Fold each of these.
Amino acid sequence: MNNSRIAGLSRSGRILPVEERADAGGKRTIVPFGPQHPVLPEPIHLELALEDETVVEAIPRIGYVHRGLEQLAEKKDFREYVYVAERICGICSFMHGMGYCMAIEEIMGLKVPERAEFLRVAWAELSRVQSHLLWLGLLADALGFESLFMRCWRLRENALDLFDLTTGGRIIFSVCKIGGVRRDIDARQADTIYRVLAESEKEVRELLDVFSDDDSIHGRMAGLGVLSPEAAYDLGAVGPMARASGLATDVRTLGYSAYATVPVDIVTEREGDCLARTKVRIREILESFRLIERCLRLAPAGSPIDQPVKGTPDGEHFVRLEQPRGEVFYYAKGNGGNLLERMRVRTPTFANLPALLHMLRGVELADVPVLILTIDPCISCAER
Amino acid sequence: MSGSNRFLELENGDLLVAEADKLRKSGHRLAQACVVTKKEAFDILYSFVKGDDLLNLRVRVADGEAIESITSIYPYAYLYENEMRDLHGVRIENIAVDFEGELYGTKNAAPFAAAREGGGERG
């Protein structure tokens, strides 16, 4: 890969006056994209270098909402930090808490009760459902398909209501703790979940038909932003981004938590374009429904859901989880005290940025918003 | 179960590129890179995965000491290496795609830089 320094930008990435762009022959135009943009709920800035209407280069700039949450782990008691980890992102909040807890549990040698593992996976998969439906709504909105946007978000409400029913919260519910979970799901709540999932499944299948077959959607997304399997691998793409390019990669297949008992069927598509990424996410919702039901039916009734935490973490460990946007890394290092020496999160959005920058080359300016949206960027995660 | 965790300590940063090359040839992919800030030094961790195997290369470098970028082996490492420089102030040379300190728009340069003499270690 060659250095990306491009005509039109100074060495510090700033826009040069036109008369200084001699090496570009005056053909290039720099268009700032973001940090505030209608398709971006969160701030990220791209300087797009165009020749006519075609993007030839994109230079990212992030850090607008960097909160230093990794560093905060060095000042918070390791038990309390679960609440901070959950606030890294409001969309995959539960799985951030779960990843952090898993890293600490590995260091401390804590065995999480079996029932708690099933409950964790059920809530994790329900988080995937609400995240994908939120994203589908944003995509429909960006395409100008208002009724579809409202339908996706109405369906998402079902998932949020199930969180409310089982945890008392809808977005951030602090139900995961080191050593297990705080709340159980009783038989009556489980019956409600089965009923809601069955009703939702029919509607999600209809969504798949609409997103797959509607001419206007097809025209905007088919063949746009193609990421080949080789490029996806070489650029380190993860999650639905990689799976839409035909790479059958999913950390859940490692069998962490309850996934060893409830294995996942990996969803892949082959086209690698924006439409393929959309189809992967919709089909993953259906797979999540299946996993949730299996977890609740297999969770041993009446078993404990947590175990006491004794001592402090002394050691280091990496864990990997499959979040809605892909593989996330949690690293924790303790030295026997109540404060961690280091906590690190590598989020899927950060891992997918090189693939995004690669895909942007060669697309028309008008297609940039939809293309960026189809990586399902989560800037909160990237700016932890 | 979250897969195996292996840590390989490198004596100095000069060995990093050669080790990364071996891992690339054995089919490992780069999964993340991060910094643990120490007193007047950094522990730099590059993590590679292949299936459930997770191997971490760790090298300690003094504050101000430079290491060679591994982007000649793993081109997409540029994002992690730009991040390590922008947030921690680690000196990394020959990054293939070099944003020259402009990736993160933080108010202060290298806000998580190594603790200097008298400041004590972070945490």
Note: Confidence is low (pLDDT under 50) at residues 118-123 of chain B.
Amino acid sequence: MKRRVVVTGLGAVTAAGVGAEPLWGALTAGQPLFSPITRFPLRDHHPKLAGQVRDFSADRWVPPTLVRQTDISTHYALASVDLALRDASLELDRFDRMRIGTTAGHALGGMDYAESQLYAQWVQGPEAVGPYQAIAWFYAAAMGQISIRWGLKGYSKAFVADRCSSMHAIGSAYRAIQLGRADVIIAGGLEAPLSPFMYRALIGTGQMSSQGYSPFSAEADGFLIGEGACFLVFEELDHARRRGARVYAEAVGYGMSTDCGAGRGLSVARDLCRAHRLALDEAGMQKTIDHVCADGVANLAGDRMEIEAMSNLLDERWGPCRTSVPKAIVGEMYGAGAALQVLAGAMAIERETCLPLAGMSSPTRRIPWAPAAESQRLQSVLIASRGNGGINASLVLKRLDTRDT
Amino acid sequence: VTKRRVVITGMGAVCPAGVGVTKLWEATSAGKPMGGRIRKLDPSRNHSRIAAMIPEIDLGFYHVTPEELGDWDPLIGYAVVAAGEAMRQADLQGTSLDRCGVCVGTAIGGVEAMERRFATLVVPEEDQGILPRYPALGGGDVAPSVLWSYSPNTPSVEIAARWGIRGPVTCVSTGCTAGVDAIGYGLDAIRSGDVDWMVAGGADAPVTPICLSAFDVIRALTRRNDDPTGASRPFDSRRDGFLLVEGAGVVVLEELEHARTRNVPILAEICGFGTNCNAFHMTSMHENGEMLAASILLALEDAGLEPGRIDYINAHGSSTPQNDRAETAAYKTIFGPRAYDIPISSTKSVTGHPLGASSAMEVIISTRALQESWVPPTANLVNPSADCDLDYTPREGRRKTLRYVLSNASGFGGLHSAIVIGRGKS
């Protein structure tokens, strides 16, 4: 009998603001939150819009000395974990911290901080590089700071896998709890891609839109990026029960697949479907998904592949299953993007709400979607994530059976 | 529930001694250190000016074209070449490519590729010698190959593409524990039934201006510039930091029955893995090594072994004053008086410290030690410091029948990981 894993807390810092509540408000309103980038000069042909975090005061969440020693992505992560722990009402002092860890997805590194150090290096010379570059930039930076801040001494890792990064972090947290390596893992992702050089590098991928983020629509020409962090508290079921924790949803299946012929692009439908199927198989479910939080890369070929994968999975029998792309409200958050979608899926189950598909004006293909949030007692949600190099990872969340509580 | 057992059926390495596990083992078993002045960049304004570099590689033999190499950060080439050696040895043709994956860890990813492009944007050729106005970047776009090279998961993706691997492909990026963490990830992926075999290991290429400066300023690196081959001297009283190195170590992990059915040689068994986080400091650890000791106990518990069963310890032994002291204390905590009787060595005395690649290379060295019944030495260990008083196998290796070997690693972020490797049976 496998150990079961549930979600008991959520925290987010996104373009919708600080906290899961403002994010939920934005996701259900279905109004995108993109604004012109003003942080650094853009060149004429650069995309102008992004989902930017506003009214965020790092000092409220991070000790002053640490603010200067860490990248802004770590500030978002520390705030997001703080919120998730409070939301879970997890009194850490009552538990063995050796059994509590954190896994974090981070696709691009702390480049906001690193760029200032790289300027110093290349303009003034090696003497100008400061002592915190070595700990602010690398991918395990936030993971390390989270563990120090809350004294978490258990299984902790950082994962990098393009836009799947935080799904891999969440999937590994799920597996680590199942296997008994930990009882609680705060898992999610972080990203702050709005620094001058990194933004230019991301434009180079050709996946960004020049106007808006409208997955599955005829106008789709790419995504807009967003920044922030999302973390969820994953907890072994009995551990959660014993402390009377509120359960958002149960993680019941996880699958990963790769289209090794994808080159530097995205997977074809067959391989994406394979990840979905692995997750459903583990969940013991067949063609009975109530909702999909789709990756929604928002280009014609990519969207078509994703619809095809879902159609194959469900044998064209969509039933009550409708599709949303929560990222289309606050932006593709790279290392945090998949965690955002998992968070949205968990809230949708708990609040019995079908999320609308934002930015949709004229669907290109038959894909069931809701124009506005609707009351629906979702039993299960499939969350998809895809990354360049043909990588896919899918997670199934399920309503915790009332007989189990 | 009995755990699925996991064995090693292939190994590959790229290190300053050359390409191949044989080169790595020849150098480490004989205690022949590597190192030299950094020539790839001008280190004259840094305190540390030495490193150990990878010799020219004949790539045609390793599924890599010169065009690809020109487009790639060096660590991708190292990883693919090391994986090629491991895959050839494991000889997995005919197995299901849906039921396998890749996880190559790295501490920093493809920094060189990114830094090169960054430098040309900040200091355009026509402005050389003039300080550009902060923070304006010069004109010019960034080619997609830059982000591809920079992304730490690209080695895993490129390996998957070459051998048609269609299962989980990811990267753990956990500083200097990345290589062994990736192997731990592979172990769990096989145990949980997600895959039957996994390509796992570590790769890093940190000899770039920003990395050199960043490690230099926090005094992590050795400054023994006039003696490069004597610079990495773990446990010695005159150790003063680690020697920056590039390279990769990759293994093929396989479920035991899967390997038996294929009737392939089993090189060793991964008996247990333990990992934790000290929650203490980003670059430092408790002086008594308490969390490091706890990670080793987790690995022993996972392996179902008493500490007394360990015959040899391949230490992290980074040659920094604090690490070697704390590590020694941790061994005493776990093994008690018997700590003095277990041969220990730091093969970083020979290889230097290729960050995330090191802990994977050390799994490979430990496996060779088991196979050869040979304890590799700690080179350069002349005068052990007073707080390092265990048997570190100074300068000369020795013959010993080994049944179980412990290899442990510590890294930035406060991470500690340990792995127990057992003798394999064909």
Note: The longest helix of chain A spans residues 72-87.
